[in-house]
Amino acid sequence: MSGIAAAGNNVVTARQVTNVQKKQAQSIEQGVKVGKLTPKEAKKLNNEQAEIDELKEELAANGSLDTEELALLFKRLETARNNINKLLRNNVSSYGQLDRNSLKTASAAID
d(Cα 89, Cα 63) in Å, to the nearest integer? Predict the structure, then answer.
């Protein structure tokens, strides 16, 4: 799997695709660990990662990934990254919905 693809102005290799996949898996794992992702969110993100893995295996069935295949994988990884970031930054955690007004009220009561 030693193809090279252009994504925007960047050149993408099969190794970079694998590295991005590893980083995304770590982000999901860390999000669960610190409570920023609920189990349901993590499952959704992990399912998306599994779909990308399956696609990568299908595309590499002939022994290597060509430029178009790498570009497709990179696009799917960019979408996955956006989904991960969106869920990491939402106001839902494994500890429940975060309500900024309640936090302000609680903070004011302490002062």
Answer: 38
Q: What residue ranges in the chain does DSSP mark as E strands?
A: 4-7, 10-13, 92-93, 96-97
Tens of pLDDT, residue by residue over 50-80, are 999 999 999 999 888 999 999 999 999 999 9
Count CB atoms within 10 A of the CB of residue 12.
22
Phi, psi dihedral angles at 34 (to 5 degrees)? -95, 0
The burial class, CB within 10 Å (0-12 / 13-18 / 19+), for 103 is exposed
Q: Which of 87, 109, 76 is nearest to 36 (CA)?
A: 87
| Average pLDDT along the chain | 82
- Cα 12 to its chain centre, rounded Å, is 17
- If we measure between CA atoms, which residue out of 84, 82, 78 comes closest to residue 16? 78
Which H or E element spans position 80? Answer: helix 67-89
pLDDT at residue 8, rounded to an integer: 52
